[in-house]
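Quick entry between incubations.
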Amino acid sequence: MALVLCGPLCGVTGWAKEPVLPFELAEDAAPKGPLDELVFAKLKAKGIPPARPCSDPVFVRRAYLDVIGTLPTQAEASDFIADQDPKKRSALIDRLLARDEYADYWALRWCDLLRVKAEFPINLWPNAVQAYHKWVRTCFVQNIPYDQFVRELLTASGSNFRNPQVNFYRAMQAKQPEAIARTVAVTFMGARAEKWSKEKLAGMSAFFNQVAYKRTAEWKEEIVYFDPFKTTAVAGSRPVQAVFPDGKPATLPQGVDPRTVFADWLIQANNPSFAPVIANRYWYWLVGRGIVHEPDDFRADNPPSNPELLAYLAKEIVAAKYDVKQLMRLILNSQTYQLSSISPVGPNPDAESLFAFYVPRRVDAEVLIDAICQITGSTEEYSSPIPEPFTWIPENQRSISLSDGSISSPFLELFGRPPRDSGLESERNNRSTPAQLLHMLNSTHILRKIRNSPLLRESIRGSDAGSAAKKLYMMILSRPPTQAEVGHIKEYAFGGDAQGQEALIDIVWALFNSPEFLYRH
Amino acid sequence: MSAEQNAGDGRREVGEPISRRDALKRGLCGAAGAMLAGRASEGAIVSTIQEKAKAVIQLWIWGGPPHTDTFDPKPAAGYDYCGPLNKTIQTNVAGIQIGELLPELAKVADKYTIIRSMTHGNNGHETAAYMVQTGWQPGGRVVYPHVGAIVSKMKGYEGGYKGLIPPYVVLTQPQGRFSEAGYLGPKYKPFATGGDPAKQPFTVEGVVAEGISDKRQKERRELLNNIGTFQQAMKDDPRFVTFAESQEQAYDLILGDGAKVFDLRTEKDELRDRYGRNTFGQSCLVARRLVEKGVKFITINYQGWDTHKQHFEIMRRKLPEMDKGFATLLSDLSERGLLDSTIVWWGGEFGRSPRVSWEPPWNGGRQHFGSVFSHVVAGGGFKGGMVVGSSTATGEEVKERPVYPWDLISTMFRLQGIDHRKELQHPQGFTVKLCPSKEDGVKSGGMLTEII
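Done. Structure below.
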């Protein structure tokens, strides 16, 4: 990596660095539409150049991991890289958004936020979990508009088995009106009601005063319903008036479920607590950092890093009638999303918060173990601490399509899968810890997957060290190796202690342990 | 702190946390001052907190051990209660008798104290296990961490612990059912060893791998460095600086001395036999070795105690195993001078119904029982040779001196020099107490001051 001598414009518009191969394109990043213009204008004002555009191999891997939580196969990656169509990136985005795994992966993300698990402290129980997960996944299969999705969750009544969206009101530790209001705030308004005034929380809680629960004769069935006679008011004092979180008092007509009044207020196009929140969440999920960060901490003293960008995205999702795929397309096709992950100015908090590069982060626990299983042709065992009479887990179950946060494996726990207790984004921990690296470097779990893989052996049968290296790189890192890397691998295969099959094991092991594999970048 | 209002779940709604300067003005300084985020009026009590225990070994008897067959025998209650186990053993402390299947523990009763009046009244595994191990009732907004995660944070990560092995270790499988780290987050989860210490080698996931020589490890490491094109490109990014450091640490553990703590071949055969050549016994031995390495909290997750059926058959098999491992752990720690600084905490989420279910389908089983049950504590500042509280003649209710999980846990915190009223930061931006007491609206028998 040679440094070009700095001219007077260095760090503003000039390029300080050569493109880093094989991760970057040689060309300069250029805005492709209003979204990029807003990002680049802000960067320019701060004197930070954007990173270079990412290379095709980086893009194909990134798009697969971000959109469908799945590593591209060797063939998918090579075909994309070889494709000469100048529009191949947007064509790939469309193909990915239509895949089955899209619904699996986004149901997983949403079930994290909605706290979908059978066990303590949420206690949905297995059959309700199955129904709820299926409902959420179906919403993504059918691409239900986001405002409708939210309204259904907020206003549902009925049996937790037959009308699964009522489980929204069951999937929380405490079910008093105030606790419900807090959950609604964090899930849909991206706000932590703990930081609100008492009055604000009380005003919003009043919308949930008449949420009632009752059991049926069927085991673990529960009805969530609107009980017009239920009151939480203390005798002798006036009931708390329902007030929208923006401070406007609400009128609740007799006999109308106040939740519908709240939901209709929430999903209005001009509500600053709704469209910007979901636009920001998707931005966070795809780009790796929120415009408001953390994405569930909207408040006056945590302003967006680029308010114009947030306003633009919010306007676009409203214009798209809350079609989240449309919002994803907009982000995924932007130059900003397609920048390399190499900071053009070294470590610099502004560069990250203003999106000068794609923020690298460790691959999600579920996606990582699925990728390892895909490469080695192996499967995983999952277990649940409670009997799951309504659950059948097929041998080749992928982690991203597990419905229940209580069904887990030691790997998922170690790699920071969220416990689904609170619905906070920060529950998912994608930081690398020494214990995780120990597991990758030296566990029997990973070693056996590599050693006992007929798929790996088969795929390089009869290849010399050079072409074996090429295949393994495509399978694991979705890119061909550099000349230098081929050299190192040949040297290892012929020079070291480990020969033949054993050398293959070691090479796969080394690629698994490279941060290039362990991170989205 | 007049601004303080309690939400009933120990959370402070409104708070002007006391400033450090204020704390100093009120005469609290150093660690005690920092610990006291906002409760100066109780400064006097805090200043008496002394760290006696440097480590905790939790013997987690998962499923619920029967109190009346172990530490609270009721031989006079008759066959409906005792079944075939109707004898007791006199221990080496006058006046203390325990169940007939615990002869080894009877010889070391001077080293531990039996609490016969543990209670919380809950008969569900998950809720009871949560209460007993976090010190909180479920409900409310907060998901509390296991005591071990708190200790690992305060005495480990923030207490200058520098060991390669994480400060909170579980032998061998995590307890599950609740997230041990609670609101503290995944960093504070325990390191679960996997493997089986009764087998050779004890393959600790990630630390001791089957059949990879050190030479091969070193060659692999070189290969990994050689193909680090991406790492080279990202070398300025702080995330990858941390990654490289973590990888170094991992290698120190794999190739250095760290892994030796799990190699029981260096222990004398005679001692290994005394502990019992089974998973529990050898886990106790590993726990002692981890304490010697400075690990702060070790949980031995001892499964298989949920004996709804075949209760007595299972007791005849399991209790002798438990007896040997537990008793040897106490005498071994004591012989090495470690018992004074190590709390050993025995107990499960509840006890088992004193009245035997003779009817089908149980045919001689015991059910979940949270009204009264026994826990045992030893070392680390706990007195030995004592009994706290008692249950009624049939062991079905607390007779005197109820002890709730939070009473015991706050006492253990105190012995570790941790103020249980300290407040930690919740990621959602409020503060949470370590452990509740009477003033938080929970039932309480008070701290166990009589045995510390």
